[in-house]
Amino acid sequence: MVKTSQPTDLSFVHRFEPATTPARPPLLLLHGTGGDENDLVPLGARIAPGSALLSPRGKVRENGMPRFFRRIAEGVFDLDDLKARAHELGDFVERARAAYALEKPIAVGFSNGANVATALMLLRPEALAGAILMRGTAPFAPDELPDLSGVPVLILSGSADPLVAADRAAALADLLSRAGAEVSAMEIDAGHGLTPHDIALATGWLAKRG
Fold first, then answer.
1. If DSSP codes are grouped into helix, strand and coil, which group holds residue 28?
2. Rounded distance, CA 22 to CA 31, Å?
3. Is residue 113 a contact partner of residue 67, using CB atoms and an 8 Å limit?
4. Which of 14, 111, 157, 198 is catalytic?
5. Would the pTM count as exceeding 0.85?
6. Positions of E strands within 37-119
7. Counting CB atoms within 10 angstroms of each CB, which of 128, 155, 177, 178 has the fewest?
8. Which of 31, 51, 157, 161 is catalytic?
9. 206: which residues sit within 8 A by CB, 6+ positions away?
């Protein structure tokens, strides 16, 4: 059931699905370019049945398509905007947790959503309990690595992804590993789009976490 009466002090248009199995960790669903707050809800329900789902809509528009931060060109990010938007997302997560009585969520991000999830971990390491990063890249290298000790992260990259080359996915895994995260990185036979293999891997990974 969709929660339609949303707290007025939350700054993102979002969709919230209450937990039906309260012991499962909540998911923060972060869509890719052109998605919205509804985009990843079916995926979240499939990979983590019973979990609460919190799904905000990115505030930036690129040719009319929602995104979580601006970019200058394909693969070239506006870093000032990215960092500001990541902090804004962190504030939203903090307020949403209080409003909906949620534990610290695990982010599930696709493409642009995976990149903002990574930025959130780098800038607000206390915000997330873990992350599934699908078709993401390292958005920037911080001057000082955060302490992500023990934070579980699953990185799913596509061997035929035309937008995220293998070395960029490897750089993401290396960056988060150096920050102390418990990284599992898997390259699958896929392009930039998600596949049943992604769903199976994400489901199995989450099943081990409650």
1. strand
2. 24
3. no
4. 111
5. yes
6. 53-56, 60-62, 65-67, 71-73, 76-77, 106-110
7. 178
8. 161
9. 25, 47, 48, 106, 132
Distance (Å, whole) CA 76 – CA 87 = 20
Strands 152-158 and 60-62: unpaired
Structure tokens belonging to residue 60: 């930036």
Clarify whether 111 is annotated catalytic.
yes
If phi > 0 it is left, if psi is from -120 to 50 it is alpha, else beta; for residue 67 that is beta
Spot the catalytic one: 81, 177, 192, 197: 192
Look at residue 57 and give its three-state secondary structure: coil
* CB 86 within 8 Å of CB 69: yes
- Give the pLDDT confidence of 119-160 residue by residue, as tens digits: 999 999 999 999 999 999 999 989 899 999 999 999 999 999
| Residue pLDDT, tens place only, 151-184 | 999 999 999 999 999 999 999 999 999 999 999 9
Catalytic residue check, 157: no
Residue 138 to residue 175: CA distance in whole angstroms: 7
Instruction: Give yes or no: 198 in active site.
Output: no
Structural domains in the chain, CATH included, are 14-207 (3.40.50.1820)
Q: Measure the CA angle with vertex 68, ends 117 and 127; round to 5°.
A: 30
